[in-house]
Automatic annotation (TrEMBL):
Record-linked PROSITE patterns: FN3, IG_LIKE, IG_MHC
Annotated Fibronectin type-III domain residues: 16-112
GO molecular function, one term: cell adhesion molecule binding
PANTHER family: MAM DOMAIN-CONTAINING GLYCOSYLPHOSPHATIDYLINOSITOL ANCHOR PROTEIN 1, NEPHRIN
Domain of life of the source: Eukaryota
Annotated organism of origin: Mytilus coruscus
Name listed for the protein in its UniProt record: HMCN
One GO cellular component term noted in the UniProt record for this chain: cell-cell junction
Transmembrane segments: 795-822
Keyword Membrane part of the UniProt annotation: yes
Key words of the record: Disulfide bond, Glycoprotein, Immunoglobulin domain, Membrane, Transmembrane, Transmembrane helix
Cellular localisation: Membrane
An example Gene Ontology biological process: cell-cell adhesion
């Protein structure tokens, strides 16, 4: 049922599509519709849904289809029989979209047309009824009316047709024209499917006369025409004419009798002589275009001789057959009413009769010879003559199709002969045999050279593997489209062949700990090959453990492979039905290393005397495949390759003749595996001992004079040794050398410092440099002269004496002398505090006068302290020189010490 929902476009939206028609043919449906012609481009938009209103793709990719006008038909393929679908159709024109019309339909073939149309004319109205086959879902009858020229007529004021929902199956058409003939057409639709059309002709008159063929019949009616009219036959020929008050005789028409002397011209009475089929029809009075008054003559005869049809035409044993008796009412004019014929069947049969059919269920061979005939009777009781009889002779077969030998699967070795295989069956009246094979993927007939015995026997000599497949014996019935078949599966056995390992590698190098495989062993065998993996790792082959085998023994996988699994792996393939076998091997080399990297001699540290030979030092390791050796030396913090002249024995051996001290360092042997990025390194530390050399004292003095109570040092003793020197300080205070007490030694015995040095610590000091090997040493000597400390009493006495002696000269002179004395004294103290940087200069200046004019004591001593320890070597040399020049003139008891000490500070 079509509906046009509001599409929201407003008042100006075009009308929705109409008159949607659905035609189902097989699994395809053809949909047609009508849209009003419009200017501009008009495009129909069709979409498709299932019964749950889920959208369905119309073609392979789209859920809709756009069709440009004038196309108003579309076919959708491959729908499911018996399913309900919904189609929705709309269209657009100049940007405006119409309303949507939707139609529900069932994927079912066209319903049967309406039957038993009955028409009853009452006055100007035609009362029409009909019958339709009840169907689930909404069923709508459609009735339309046509005139005798087949032009459609409006049934009511505006429509040319009328829709009536089931169960309404009758309708009254009013205000029809008397004495005209019409045609009514009735069809119905259900779920989008339209039935066939049934049409029925009728005449608008209640005056109906029935007559048998070859009889005379009187026809009468009245007319409202008073004069000058004609009485017409169904063939439109004039039977007679009238004038004002009489009938004008037409003696040529001997077919009809009428009273020419009647005074009532309006009362028409005619006798039709010896009625035949052409006499049937409408007799009427006519004046010009005016027709008024009529009578319908219906000529009847016996129903024609029935015919019997058998469905199926050639029934087989086991079929349900339907025998139909068909006859036709002989009634003119053609199309007048529907006569419900009744049928009677005759014959010795078990039957289930319904109207004009009889059904025999499950035909058997025993029904052979059964005859059937029938008669028809119309609604007037007229009985047809008896039909011709049919006799049943049911076909059967092909049945019991059998192959000998009766195997479903036949195994045969390649190169031998298959067969003969015989095919037999039972058929009536006869069987036809055909052998087929599907060697190429589809069944094709066997070459005739393999067939014998009226196509029943099959023999294939020297059979090949390509001839494996299904062999089909098809048995056809000789007189019908019936067949049966029997199959045998022929397996041509061969192999094993083409034994292949995947990957296709004959030698596999694999690192220890990695996973070997999967290695797939494949071969060509029919039936399926049997696979066995074996390994030769100990000199003979043994089965590979089951945990390494999978995929029906075809696949080898060894996770975490070990070096002892190196060897040959063999895949042996056996034929399951014969003694044939084949095999293929793969060699597996488990690589490992470098391991056990060692140096020979196995020392981590080597001392080599400068000038002697280092080595040979041999680097060894365990690798599979072989190792690659590289020697490097840590030179200035960076590893550099050892020069080639020191390397031998395929880079394994290091030898350095006449080694030098600058070749001290770490030597590294790196071992690489040739097939991987793995490497290991081992080191040896090489020390080239030398020294002691470059012995130096800081400060660089061999004789030091120092005042008692001050600090000697620090005096640093340095030398160059490898490994580092061993230092020892000794002193000769008492005439022989003894170790300097530990409290005066620091900095790993290198530094001598004596605070508050005493007079008795004067003497020779010796720094000894020993090499660690105890075989080499050097010494350097230092002479220390400690002077006693001088007090200030003697100096003060001299000053006071000088003042007393001078007091007698002039008081002013005494004052000047005293002031002069104190000023000089202050300058001396300031000079002392300026540090040792000026001491050497002062001493050098004083030494020019050899101590006799540089003050009462004769010279100024410079005390060696931490401050003056940092003075330059020049200062010490100056000091030593000054002492050498003036030492003989200086007497310990006759000098005044102006050195800055804690006391005068």
């Amino acid at each position: 049922m079509a509906r046009a929902p509001d599409d929201g476009h407003g008042h100006g939206a075009p009308d929705p599509p109409r008159d949607i028609r659905i035609s189902v043919i097989g699994n395809n449906v053809t949909i047609s519709w009508a849209i009003p012609p419009m200017q501009g481009e008009t495009i129909s938009h069709i979409s498709f849904y299932d019964s749950r209103r889920r959208k369905i793709a119309i073609d392979s990719s789209n859920n809709y289809k756009d069709l440009e006008f004038p196309i108003t038909e579309y076919t959708i393929c491959n729908l499911t029989k018996g399913f309900e679908y919904i189609v929705k159709i709309e269209y657009t024109n100049r940007g405006q979209r119409s309303g949507v019309t939707e139609q529900l339909f069932l994927m079912k073939n066209e319903p049967d047309p309406p039957i038993d149309i009955r028409i009853n004319v009452i006055g100007k109205d035609a009362h029409i009824s009909w019958a339709i086959t009840p169907i689930q879902g909404e069923t709508v009858s459609r009735i339309s009316l046509f005139d005798s020229k087949r032009s459609i007529l409006a049934i009511d004021s505006s429509n040319n047709y009328k829709h009536l929902k089931f169960p309404i199956t009758k309708y009254k058409i009013v205000n029809l024209t008397k004495c005209l003939d019409y045609v009514v057409k009735i069809e119905y639709s259900n779920r989008g499917l339209r039935s066939g059309v049934t049409e029925q002709r009728f005449w608008m008159t209640e005056n109906i006369v029935t007559a048998d063929i070859n009889t005379n019949v009187a026809i009468s009616w009245t007319t409202g025409i008073k004069e000058f009219f004609s009485v017409m036959s169904p063939s439109s020929s004039v039977i007679y004419e009238t004038d004002i008050d009489s009938i004008i005789d037409n003696s040529r028409l001997v077919k009809y009798k009428f009273n020419t002397r009647t005074n009532d011209l309006k009362a028409i009475n005619i006798t039709v002589i010896n009625v035949n089929s052409k006499d049937g029809g409408l007799y009427k009075a006519k004046k010009g275009e005016i027709e008024d008054g009529c009578s319908l003559l219906v000529v009847t005869g016996k129903p024609i001789k029935p015919t019997l049809t058998l469905q199926p035409e050639h029934p087989f044993v086991g079929d349900n057959i339907t025998i139909t008796c068909s006859s036709t009412v002989q009634r003119w004019p053609a199309g007048f009413k529907t006569s419900n014929l009744r049928y009677k069947f005759d014959g010795n049969l078990r039957r289930d009769t319904k109207n004009n059919t009889v059904t025999i269920h499950t035909l058997t061979k025993a029904d052979k010879g059964t005859y059937i005939k029938c008669q028809a009777t119309d609604d007037l009781g007229k009985i047809s003559i008896m039909s011709n009889a049919i006799t049943l002779d049911p076909f059967y077969g092909p049945n019991h199709v059998m192959l000998e030998p009766a195997n479903t699967v036949l195994n045969v070795l390649e190169g031998t002969t298959l067969g003969p295989i015989q095919c037999t069956a039972t058929c009536f009246p006869g069987c036809k045999y055909n052998w087929k094979h599907n060697w190429s993927g589809q069944f094709t007939p066997f070459p005739s050279k393999f067939i014998s015995n009226q196509n029943q026997n099959l023999t294939v000599p020297n059979i090949k593997r390509s001839q494996s497949g299904t062999y089909l014996c098809k048995v056809d019935h000789s007189d019908a489209e019936r067949h049966n078949k029997s199959c045998i599966s022929v397996v041509v056995q061969y192999g094993p062949e083409d034994v292949v390992l995947q990957p296709k590698i004959r030698v596999i190098n694999i690192m220890e700990g990695a996973t070997l495989g999967p290695i797939h062993c494949t071969a060509t065998c029919i039936p399926r090959c049997k696979y066995v993996w074996k390994q030769n790792s100990t000199g003979h082959f043994r089965p590979v453990p089951a945990e390494f085998i999978s995929n029906q023994n075809q696949t080898l996988t060894i996770p975490g492979i070990k070096r002892n699994q190196t060897g040959t792996f063999s895949c042996r393939v056996d034929h399951s039905e014969s003694k044939r076998h084949n095999s293929t091997d793969v060699s597996v080399n488990v690589q490992y290393g470098p391991e056990d990297v060692r140096l020979v001699p196995n020392n981590q540290f080597i001392n080599v005397i400068e000038g002697s030979t280092l080595g040979p030092i041999q680097c060894t390791a365990t690798c599979n495949p072989g190792c690659i050796y590289n020697w490097k030396q840590n030179w200035m913090g960076r590893l550099k390759p050892v020069p080639k002249e020191f390397i031998s024995n395929k880079n394994q051996t290091l030898t350095i003749p006449e080694i030098k001290r600058n070749q001290t360092g770490t030597y590294s042997c790196r071992v690489d595996q040739t097939e991987s990025t793995r490497h290991e390194t081992t080191n040896i530390s090489v020390n080239v001992p030398y020294g002691p050399e470059d012995v130096v004292l800081e400060p660089n003095n061999t004789i030091i004079y120092i005042q008692e109570g001050t600090t000697l040092g620090p005096i640093n003793c340095t030398a160059i040794c490898n490994p580092g020197c061993i230092y020892n300080w000794n002193q000769n205070w008492t005439g022989r050398y003894q170790p300097v007490p530990e409290e005066f030694i620091s900095n790993q015995n290198q530094t001598l410092t004596i605070q508050g040095i005493m007079k008795n610590q004067s003497g020779a000091y010796k720094c000894r440099f020993d090499h660690h090997d105890g075989k080499r040493h050097k010494t350097t000597d230092l002479s220390v002269n400690v002077r006693r400390r001088q007090t200030n009493d003697k100096y003060s006495l001299i000053v006071l004496l000088s003042i007393s002696l001078g007091s007698c000269v002039l008081v002013l002179l005494v004052v000047i002398i005293v002031v002069f004395f104190f000023n000089r004294r202050n300058r001396g103290n300031i000079s002392d505090r300026e540090g040792t940087n000026r001491s050497a200069l002062t001493f050098s200046h004083s030494s020019d006068d050899c101590g006799t004019t540089a003050g009462d004591a004769g010279y100024i001593d410079i005390i060696d302290t931490k401050e003056n320890a940092s003075n330059s070597h020049q200062d010490h040399r100056t000091f030593s020189h000054a002492y050498d020049e003036c030492a003989s003139a200086a007497v310990d008891d006759e000098y005044t010490d102006l050195t800055d000490t804690k006391e005068n500070g």
